Each structure stands twice: as structure tokens, then as C-alpha cells.
Amino acid sequence: MARIARVEILMVPLLPKTKRTDAIQSFVCQETVIVRIHDAEGAVGTGYSYTIGTGGSSVVRLLADHLAARLIGREADEIERLWTDLKFHTHATTVGAITSLALAAIDTALWDLRARRVGLPLWKLAGGAKDRAPLYTTEGGWLHLEPQALIDDALEAKRLGFGGAKVKIGKPRAREDVMRLEKLREAVGDDFEILTDCNQAFTVDEAIRRAHMLEPIGLGWIEEPLPADDLDGHIRLSRSTSLPVAVGESIYSLRHFREYMQKGACSIVQVDVARIGGITPWLKVAHVAEAFNMPVCPHFLMELHVSLTCAVPNGRWVEYIPQLDEITSSRMTIEKGYAVAPSAPGLGIDWDWDAIDGRKVESIDVTEGDA
């Protein structure tokens, strides 16, 4: 075991590769918060989290002002203890997005450090259930796109072996959503999953009405139909439709996930490693979902989620949205529509530090003298 000697905190803004719109917002910038943890023996682990355009500087300040110094001198391998201590230290701002994003950057760095020290890829260290998982694409399903563009992207994904495509819904008129999806279904056939994402846009009555209209299309799921804190609304919707209801990218607590599963408010869990607070709580949510016989289909962060999806037996899908290409030298391996878990020790992400240095807008070092 080795004690933590230094913590680096960086922030790198990344613009999306394509225009991304949904029913409530546009994805304008990924503020990528990166944490590097150095131990006293010279080993380094790198973790990260993200925002979609706001709050990144707040995550950096929470890390720099309140969390990083508390790591100095601690045993890097005591990941559960460190996560619990930091969560308690931030109890006045927990549960919340900024705190979870900060904890996630630290926790993923600690897991990367542990995996590198023992010489194992993350997917094996965290469970090793399988070495690959099927992919679906979201990059061609944005709300502003015309139906033919949706069709062209989905057909190309199908040609490449992908198992499905996600389409954003939430047009002002429900019939327009239905029309777009009917045309897509006709083009791709019945052997390709169509997944839909509402981005929390609907009221309960509208979600129920639209779900009934969409049922004949045979969708794989309806994602985030209601605000994430509307547990009762999700229960009512789940009881009223045959469509699987997917939630998770906007849920920040293991206990909130438990409530959703326990009360029948969802049937698919989309836990996001950054928004839940790291790999440590992500695995707990995944195992609880397994106990409820529910699949885990994590949101975004494909470069990291491929390893976690492969770590657990109920990991069903990896979401294809490349976002780290400009600051990494590695690419997720894809074989016949499947994401292949990295074989290298650690998270399996090769960071391009020259590119990061050229793009970073924040850079803070915390060492033993700052503790």
C-alpha cells in the first residue's frame, strides 16, 4: 500500500462533434474535470467527470477547496473508506450534482490507480462478467434532425452491427414524434432496437398519452419521460404502459435508485458513473439492479462505461457517443457492433497530456504541504 502524496486538478472544455439538441436543452460544451492522484511510490491514477456546459468551475473549486487536501497522506487503496469519508465531509451539499461530480473524479482516479498497481483492467478488477457488450448509437438521433437523417444514421449503425439507435423525442405535437419513429421503424425493420429519450420534458398525463401512442412501434424503452424527482409520476406511468421506463442519468443517490426499483417506477437503470459519484457507488447500484432483475444501461461516458458494463452480469448496453477523442490517444475498440473491454491495466483510457495541456483552463496542484 502507498500513501497519497499529490493531487492534480484540471479542467478541459470539449466541444461536441455534432450539434446535439433534445426536448429541453442543447449540449454546448463538455467541461471535463480531470483528477490525477500520485502515490508516494510514483504510481498515478487518473479519473474524470463532466458537465454539459455549466458548473465545471464549481466542481473544480469543491475539489480544490474542500476535498483534495483530505486525500494527502491517506492510503490510496482504501477506496471505500475514502469515498465514505469524503461524502460525510460534504454532507451539507449531498445529495447533489456538483458534489457527486467531484467525488466521481476522485473515485475513478483511485480505481485507476489500484488497477494499474495490480496490473488488471478495470472490468476484471470490478467483476469481470464479460469482455464485451452490445452498442447502440445516440449521435444521429437528435431532436432537430429530419426523419431521413435519423434513418440514414440508424441504417449505417445497423450495417456496422450496432444493436440499436436512440432518438430524442419531445416535439410540440405528439403525432410528429410518432411519425418520425414510424418512418424509422419501417426503414430499419423489427430486428433493430429503437430507443427513445424524453429528457424529462413531459407532465405525467402527457407522458402517459404519448407512451400509449408509441407502444405499437415496439420501442426498447422510453427514457427520462418525467422530471427525475417525480417518483410518483414514474410509478403511475410504469403501471399504465407496456413500454420499459428507463431512468438514472439524473439520479445521484443509491437510495433514490433503490426507491425507483422497489416501487416499480422503472424497469431499466441508466446509472451514470460521474453523476452517481464514482465507480464505488456505480457498482452498488448495478448490483441492486441485479437483485431486482433489471438491466444496467449506463448513460454517456462510453470510454469508461464499457468497462463497468462488462464488469457486471446485468450490463446490457453501451451508449455510443465519442467525446474524449481530442484529449486521448486511445479509442474504444468496436468489433461487429460490440464494445470490447480494454485489456490494459486501469480504466483503459490513454490520455494525451500534450493535448490536455494545450486545452486546459484550470490547473491546481495539492501536495503534502497543503494538507
Shape: globular
Give the oligomer, counting copies of the same chain as homo and different chains as hetero. Answer: single chain
Uncertain stretches: none
* Relative strand content: 15-25%
Percent helix: 25-40%
Radius of gyration: 20 Å
Give me the strand/helix succession.
Answer: EEEHHHHEHEHEHEHEHEHHHEEEHE
**What gap, in angstroms, lies between the N and C termini?**
20 Å
Whole-number average pLDDT?
96
Largest sheet: 9 strands, mixed
Task: State the helix count.
Answer: 13
Count of extended strands: 13
Structural class assignment: alpha/beta
Could you explain the architecture of this structure?
This protein has helices spanning 56-67, 79-89, 97-118, 122-125, 147-159, 174-188, 204-214, 231-240, 254-262, 273-276, 279-291, 302-311, 353-359; strands spanning 4-14, 30-39, 44-51, 132-137, 164-168, 193-197, 221-223, 245-247, 268-269, 318-320, 333-335, 338-340, 362-367. The chain is of the alpha/beta class and 371 residues long. The strands form 2 sheets. Strands 4, 5, 6, 7, 8, 9, 10, 11 and 12 form a 9-stranded mixed beta sheet that branches. The chain has a 4-stranded antiparallel beta sheet with strand order 3-2-1-13. α5 links the parallel β4 and β5. α1 (56-67) crosses α3. The chain is globular. The mean pLDDT is 96.
Structural features:
alpha/beta, 13 helices, 371 residues, 4-stranded antiparallel β-sheet, 13 strands, 9-stranded mixed β-sheet
Task: Walk me through the topology.
Layout: E1 4-14, E2 30-39, E3 44-51, H1 56-67, H2 79-89, H3 97-118, H4 122-125, E4 132-137, H5 147-159, E5 164-168, H6 174-188, E6 193-197, H7 204-214, E7 221-223, H8 231-240, E8 245-247, H9 254-262, E9 268-269, H10 273-276, H11 279-291, H12 302-311, E10 318-320, E11 333-335, E12 338-340, H13 353-359, E13 362-367
Parallel strand pairs: 4-5, 4-10, 5-6, 6-7, 7-8, 8-9
Antiparallel strand pairs: 1-2, 1-13, 2-3, 4-12, 11-12
Helix pairs in contact: 1-3, 2-3, 5-6, 7-8, 9-11
